[in-house]
TrEMBL record:
Domain of life: Bacteria
Positions of the Gcp-like domain: 76-172
SUPFAM superfamilies: Actin-like ATPase domain
Protein name: tRNA threonylcarbamoyladenosine biosynthesis protein TsaB
One Pfam family hit: TsaD
InterPro entries according to UniProt: ATPase_NBD, Gcp-like_dom, T6A_TsaB
GO cellular component: cytosol
GO BP terms in the entry: tRNA threonylcarbamoyladenosine modification
Source organism (scientific name): Brachymonas denitrificans DSM 15123
Amino acid sequence: MSENPSASAPVSPSVAPVPEGAAPLPAWQPQAGLQLLAMDTSTSVMSVAVGRWPAGAAARGEAPDQWQHTGAGAAQSSATLIPTVQRLLGEAGLGLAQLDAIVFGAGPGSFTGLRTACAVAQGLALGTGRPVLPVDTLLAVAEDWRSRQPELAPGTVVWALLDARMDEIYVAGWRWQPRDGMPAWELTQPVLLARPEDLLQVPGLKPEAICAGNVQPVYGERLPVTVQEGMPTADAMLRLAPALLLDGGAIDPALALPRYVRDKVAQTTAEREEAKLRAAGARHA
């Protein structure tokens, strides 16, 4: 199990870590209307959404008018993301200059996918003078799972898990703490990398914990916890955005960066063989 090198840095209750040197921009005013574009390409799924709230509605936790798209991510998103953004903005009757911010999944996730979303958000924002709002993809996973629950008691901790490939999982803990009707979370355990069998070594993660993510179909019986479906969707990022903006999460697009967590992109041949042996052993245990 390995630790995110920035995990010891102080983190605001619900804001993804701001890149080093990035000065937060003036906070969005809750009495105002809100118009956002959100995108995520951190997994094999590309998720894009445009949201529009009338004056005061976002601060009351109301759902926006929304236009959204879900499609193939990974390498394909580099060719399809910008046309999808243009189409959704056209359907919403909005121009880029009318947006209050451009929201993107900052990571962790696929190296190529994170670079794609960050570069597109950055380019669109720089061209129109808009700020960007980086959102932790594991936070979005927790929020995506929560949105499908009938009710969640404040203080409930949800563990978000995303497949990191190379026989590892990104994992972080988030506590549900809504504010005045707005979806909001507090970070309880910064992101770590862990092998499936080592998840219970993560501080605070117990066998009975609520877990959400995309790893259950991938690792199956090797997991010591049950992981319900959850993804870093653009829809979830739109719901999170009002509280994040109030917390000063929007930054100058020139300073936006993906959050990789680890530097290694691929396994060696020996490491791939070892991972296959562990998987085979788990199936026959």
